[in-house]
Amino acid sequence: MSVKYESQLREPLVYGNKTYHDVTEDIVRPIEAKPSKLWYIGFYISVCLLMFGVYSVYREVTYGIGEWNLNKTIGWGWDITNFVWWVGIGHAGTLISAILLLFRQGWRTGVNRAAEAMTIFAVMCAGQFPIFHMGRVWMAFFVLPYPNSRGPLWVNFNSPLLWDVFAISTYFTVSLLFWYSGLIPDFATVRDRAKTKLRKHLYGIAAFGWTGSTKHWQRHESLSLVLAGLSTPLVLSVHTIVSFDFATSVIPGWHTTIFPPYFVAGAIFSGFAMVQSLMVVVRKVFGLKDYITLGHIEAMNKVIVLTGSIVGIAYLTELFMGWYSQNKYEGYTFWYSRANLFSPYGWSYWGMMACNVLSPQIFWFRKMRRNLFVTFFMSVLVNIGMWFERFVIIVTSIYRDYLPSSWSVYYSPSIWEIGFYLGTFGLFFTCFFLFAKYFPTIAIAEIKYVLKTTGESYKDNMATIEKKQADEFAHEYAH
Amino acid sequence: MAKKKFVVGCFDNEDVLFPAVKKVRTTGYKIKDVYTPFPVHGLDHALGMRETSLHTAGFIYGITGTTTALSCISWIFTKDWPLDIGGKPHFALPAWIPIMFELTVLFAAVGMVLTFCYLCQLAPFVKKHHFHLRATDDLFVMVIECTENTNTEDLKAFLTNNGAIETDVQIAEEGWWIGRYDKDEVLFEGATA
Known about the structure:
The complex is a heterodimer. Chain A is mainly α.
């Protein structure tokens, strides 16, 4: 079989003159080396945040959700905002690994492993919020449909909140399986070159006895492809169902039919932003610039500008419908509670507009897309904006309802509500630091698979092939 | 389970591997397996393997998930406990589509991964014989099963002529066993090759 080369017009996905062994060396090095001081500091801060989060949750479980400043009008505050925010972030990983696999986007190989890890950790964080929002968290198993001694009292299968239970847990399970099945061959690589006994033993367990047999690879390829095919509609369904939590209600501001596509676009938008924040740091700290190239960063920035603009159109459509429907409640929510800068929460709406719609437009310029500082700054900005979006949707729609006597006093979160949110950051980064240290952050086998077609040094072969063909062509058609 | 004798040839380039696989097979040797660090497309066909039916299994698992969701929910909401939700129909199919879809995906994914692990005999604490440690790094390791008539020296020379950079004769256990990778255990005394 002759090796196919990719056109020189395409940017290489792997820079440098690399052999297969170099790829292994580069990616496994951080696992085998002692972590840097920076890693310890980062890990320590994350664990501290996590501890604070655990204490905040302890307060909430002990004293009830009154510990959060939720009240009768604002029943969903920071917690559900944070839930939707984390779930949204958790969409990029599967999008990168599944949808881009089906679309045969070669650049996904450099970032998919870390993005999938991020997805799993983000979904773990997201899950905490609805669970602890139940108040009596020890009753959380009531959401599971099983024959019980309470009647049996079944769950309501017609409720979007239950769909959420199924969607999030399925999403978590499938993402985990997809991620781990990809990790097995790479763990085997780490195992087979391990120098210490402990590492050999532990990675030996993690690698499940993988040998690299051709038949196993054939099945592995089939498994990855089908899991990608399954994950593609799954990732779209998850945020669609999250949007149903709002869209199936009759609250002005929530009762909107464009919610599913608008939420999915927003999820991809914030997810990619989080991937960018992490990748810009990871490639620098672990010296993986040859694998996570500027081309990767640029491709993701293109996705950000596209999805950011889709989200922007959704905002404008909502405003238009608020006026066009001539429904006074809708009009009040959209034009007074949100778009009016001087209404109590007007600042959050305009913060959202500035971060999500206006600022990403900078990525229309190639120079900006390939600038790491701009990318990092923008990725943080986008995530702030997307947090505002969920806050706007939830709080501005419910703080003033149909009955003025039940209008809320100004809602601001308590320290324990904020602490819970910070705690999930702690959980997320604790997991991510451990992942970055002990797992291959880049899919080794997948990089090797594309190395000879898209590696920088191998691309030179394409020049001779392309040139030869052009000469032959010219010769054939010359008179 | 018995130990067998194998001739191992290591290649460092997949472009050399393919013609070698073809030659070894046409000469009549039985290739047990080729261990590669990444999926080499077309190698399964070159070795004469049939396509995997793992995706068919996935389809069956998926359908099982759909039926499980539909039958359970419809039984619960129409027979076991018909809950009156604002006078709406008990058999509310459109509202069940999300859960039916999720269970389809869940069953298919979990079932396929378990089937994959079963077929490839992958599990924690499973240990297998590794013919060359660099097979997960940068070498393509061809393993040929020996019969009583095999002249190992000839075969090794034949592999070297076809581009193998390293050849070796190994007596090894074919299957898997429970073990640790940091320990070398002697499984069966005395080879029966």
